[in-house]
Write a structure and sequence with these properties.
The complex is a heterodimer. Helices cover 66% and strands 0% of the residues of chain A. Chain A is mostly helical. Chain A is elongated, with a radius of gyration of 22 Å. Chain B is an alpha+beta fold. Chain B is globular, with a radius of gyration of 33 Å. Classes of the chains: A mainly alpha, B alpha+beta.
């Protein structure tokens, strides 16, 4: 049964890993704005489309 | 007047507005104005036309081009240093508030700003807050250039006095998120580790596992106790110091006893403790706190005049114009105000044609013409040519701004509201301590070994977790529901305040009347140029609201001198313009005929015109009262005492009395200070006052009242400090909102009973001295979940019943 010690240790370590990840997310500001990213994610497509269709008009895409 | 009908509407490619008569054509597209066309030109030159693909007509009309010198003050080092968040000499960072931001195209364009100005390194939008965070190279560009660029494409940022005077508050939200994260993590793991104990598995006890698990639990509970539950201890101690016992005291007591008793049991090897209960308790409490913290990001409830006043104004010093921060304005300074600029201090008109829009102050949108030498109060906005003024009072001493010097604005954060929860928890705490002591003494006499056990058990089980959760969840749900119905509440406690309302005070202009122009139409044969002049000249002499409307209908007309002018209040006007006799007024006034019943007062008023005893027709003037005003008032007057405070003259008294009924008291020509004093007077008679207003002149009254509601046509634009911001479109629902607030407090009371019921069950175990950790671990989450479910469901049901969305 002493394998329990290792298992519990492992599970706790993993859980702590998730806790740290959570704290990191909050700190980096992921919870500050929960709306804009959902709109922003759609923009890349549009920008690429125009770059392809108007090849002679270079659009900076960085 | 000939009517122009639009056979087919041509809408502007940029802003989607109606192009009226003459659309401006460019590249095969139509624009409503030069401003829109220019924005399109800028965007198309920079390959930014995707702006128009994301949404149709995403722009905002740029009707009033910004003067070139408007943002000169942004070059001022002093102003700059206060606005900029970060500066290392090369890179500068700033966050700007852009009120017109409204769609995904806006986000896209604002985040593509680097294509328009190479000095901009990055731009990020926070759409909900309508903020734009910019990073730019100060060597290549400057804040002034960027702000001018933004204005030129129709996204003028709002930079005002408030930005330089107050420091940005760091949000408390992150801390709460950490606390919830930690508590949730510990709660889950402690539960997991406690499972063998719940099921009484003997094998674990044999192998010393239970001892190890106990210690593990204690280690996991430590961060909950020390970090997550911190605020409850701090608040409890703060409250006790002020001799004020809130819900935090029994909570802190319960948490503390839970931890110490459990730690004692683990260390002395006499039990397994209640760490699972502790972690669960704190976790649920924090969730409740988070739920209650719902805020409306784009709304600001704390605005005062500073949020609307400019940072700097042009002052003539040695015959040249210099930008001077408004706080440094001195009496005698000569200031220059351009089209669409706000007058920051009371001053005398020295030069130019002043046409002032006082809508910020009074809610009245019709402009007021001022003559040379006349005093113009701060807060007015000049429409038209550039004017020159001499400052007569400092900004903070002006007629309007001195409101903020009154005591109501001095003690800003004093929380004088006694919520239901606070009242109950005081009695609860006393009862709890008495029960704990009595049971301790009882056992001291009969079985001393159980005494301490019983004492701590009582404090643990009676820890008012469910009690503490019922208010946040009921009020938080109510806030969300009301928010969906465009009734935005500053903080949850306000719901209880609304429920207590006994008297309601209304402002008139802008609150119960609409600030946009009233519909007016002339019925009869079309009038000649001369007749128009005659009517306009006569109506100009009266201050009655209807005359004012008729005059503004013909505002381009020339004004002729009037002789033998006579006005019968509430009836009509008469006089001679040249040799023509004119009468304007009600049918009764014109024909002295009592038999004709006047038209229904609710929909529109007819004002008849007679020139040289010939009836020319009538003006059909629709009331500019808000939709559903009459039914709303007749509903309200059954339950509340109503008052009306208006800054206007009493020309509207008759109509108002008709709507409000004979019991209501109406007051006209009220100054901002007068309104504030009136509210105080009512409160001295122990009345619970709700004030519904809109302009800055109501700011004092809104602040002084128990519940201040500001009505706003555009919630993201303008509203004075208040407890509630109500969208003007839901004004007719006011009674429903009050009713819903009352029902919400009913829900809170019932859920208090439920949680007390649980407490009594738990206490019956506790006083016997045999509270097992399992019972505690079941009872605590069960009571919490019941209360959360009951309050949210009941509140939602009440909202459905009350006809809210």
């Amino acid at each position: 049964m002493s394998v329990m010690y290792i298992l519990i240790g492992c599970s706790l370590l993993m859980a702590i890993g998730f806790l740290i990840a959570f704290i990191w997310f909050v700190k980096s500001g992921q919870m500050d704005d929960v709306y804009t990213p959902s709109v922003r994610i759609l923009f890349d497509d549009i920008e690429n489309k125009t770059t392809n269709s108007n090849k002679n008009e270079p659009i900076k895409n960085d | 007047m000939a009517k122009i009908t639009h056979e087919q509407k041509i809408t502007c490619y940029h802003c989607g507005d109606d192009c009226d008569h003459f659309p401006i054509e460019s590249e095969g597209l139509s624009f409503c104005c030069v401003g829109c066309k220019n924005v399109y030109a800028i965007l198309s030159n920079n390959n930014l036309c995707d702006y128009y693909n994301l949404e149709s007509n995403p722009g905002t009309a740029v009707r009033n081009p910004v003067s070139k010198t408007k943002f000169n003050y942004l070059d001022d080092e002093q102003v700059l240093s206060k606005l900029i968040d970060f500066n290392d000499g090369h890179i500068q960072k700033i966050t700007l508030f852009i009120p017109v931001m409204h769609c995904s195209s806006c986000i896209w364009l604002l985040e593509s700003l680097y294509k328009l100005d190479k000095g901009i390194a990055s731009s990020r939008v926070n759409f909900l807050k309508k903020n734009l965070s910019l990073t730019f190279k100060s060597d290549t560009t400057s804040l002034r250039k960027i702000v001018e660029l933004l204005s030129s494409i129709g996204y003028e940022p709002a930079i005002n006095l408030n930005d330089v005077e107050t420091q940005v508050k760091k949000s408390e939200n992150k801390r709460l998120s950490y606390q919830i994260g930690v508590a949730g993590f510990c709660f889950g793991n402690i539960m997991l580790i406690s499972f063998p104990e719940y099921f009484g598995l003997d094998e674990f006890a044999k192998e010393n596992f239970s001892r190890m698990f106990g210690f593990l639990n204690m280690i996991l509970a430590l961060p909950v106790f020390l970090f997550s539950a911190q605020d409850y201890f701090i608040n409890a101690i703060k409250g006790l110091r002020k001799n004020h016992i809130g819900i935090d005291v029994p909570l802190a007591l319960g948490i503390f006893v839970l931890f110490t008793r459990s730690a004692y049991e683990i260390i002395s090897h006499t039990g397994i403790g209640y760490f699972d209960t502790l972690a669960g308790l704190v976790f649920f409490l924090l969730i409740g706190k988070w739920f209650q913290q719902k805020t409306f990001d784009t709304l600001s409830f704390e605005r005062d005049y500073k949020s609307y006043f400019p940072i700097a104004v042009g002052v003539i010093i040695n015959k040249t114009e210099t930008s001077v921060p408004v706080n440094n304005l001195k009496i005698g300074d000569r200031i220059i105000i351009r089209n669409n600029e706000l007058i920051p201090a009371d001053s005398i008109l020295m030069n130019g044609d002043a046409n002032i829009d006082f809508s910020f102050v009074t809610g009245e949108s019709a402009t007021v013409r001022k003559v040379l030498g006349e005093i113009i109060y701060a807060g007015g906005r000049q429409i038209g040519e550039t004017i020159e003024l001499e400052v007569t009072k400092k900004v903070s001493q002006s007629y309007l701004t001195q409101l903020w010097n009154s005591e109501h604005f001095a003690k800003e954060n004093e929380n004088h509201i006694q919520t239901f929860q606070q009242t109950v928890s005081r009695y609860f705490t006393f009862a709890l301590v008495i029960i704990a002591l009595v049971s301790a003494i009882w056992w001291l006499i009969f079985d001393p070994s159980l005494s301490l056990n019983a004492f701590t058990s009582v404090l643990i089980i009676a820890c008012p977790c469910a009690l503490a959760l019922s208010s946040p969840f009921a009020l938080g749900t109510a806030m969300r529901i009301l928010g969906r119905n465009k009734f935005y509440i500053k903080s949850p406690e306000v719901v209880e305040q609304i429920a207590k309302t006994k008297s309601i005070v209304f402002d008139k202009t802008g609150t119960i009347t609409q600030s946009n122009e009233a519909k007016i139409e002339f019925v009869g044969n079309s009038l000649s140029e001369k007749e128009i002049q005659i009517i306009a000249s006569l109506s100009k002499h009266s201050v009655h609201p209807l005359s004012k409307k008729i005059f503004s209908f013909f505002y381009q007309s020339k004004v002729l001198p009037v002789t033998n002018f006579k006005e019968e209040t509430g009836k009509g006007l008469q006089g001679f313009v040249g040799n023509d006799e004119v009468k304007i007024g009600s049918y009764k006034f014109l024909f002295s005929d009592e038999s004709v019943n006047s038209d229904s007062p609710d929909l529109f008023t007819k004002v008849y015109v007679m020139i040289n005893n010939d009836l020319r027709g009538y003006f059909k003037i629709e009331h500019s009262y808000r939709k559903g005003l009459t039914p709303l008032i007749s509903q309200l007057k059954k339950h509340f005492s109503l008052y009306l405070l208006s800054g206007d003259n009493d020309g509207d008294r008759k109509n108002m009395q008709e709507i409000f009924g004979d019991d209501a008291e109406l007051f006209f020509k009220q100054s901002p200070m007068g309104k504030l004093n009136f509210i105080e007077q009512l409160q001295k008679q122990h009345k619970h006052v709700m004030m519904i207003g809109d302009g800055l002149n109501d700011a004092g009254a809104l602040k002084a009242s128990n519940v201040g509601i500001s009505v706003s046509e555009n919630t993201s634009h303008f509203s004075p400090a208040s407890d509630v911001i109500m969208d003007a479109s839901v004004f007719n629902n006011t009674y429903r909102f009050i009713q819903f607030a009352k029902n919400t407090t009913k829900v809170i009371k019932i859920s208090f009973m439920i949680s007390l019921f649980y407490n009594i069950i738990g206490l019956s175990f506790a006083v016997q001295g045999n509270l097992s950790p399992l019972i505690a671990a079941i009872l605590m989450p069960l009571s919490s979940v019941t209360v959360i479910a009951f309050t949210t469901i009941a509140t939602t049901l009440y909202s459905k019943k009350g006809g809210l969305e």
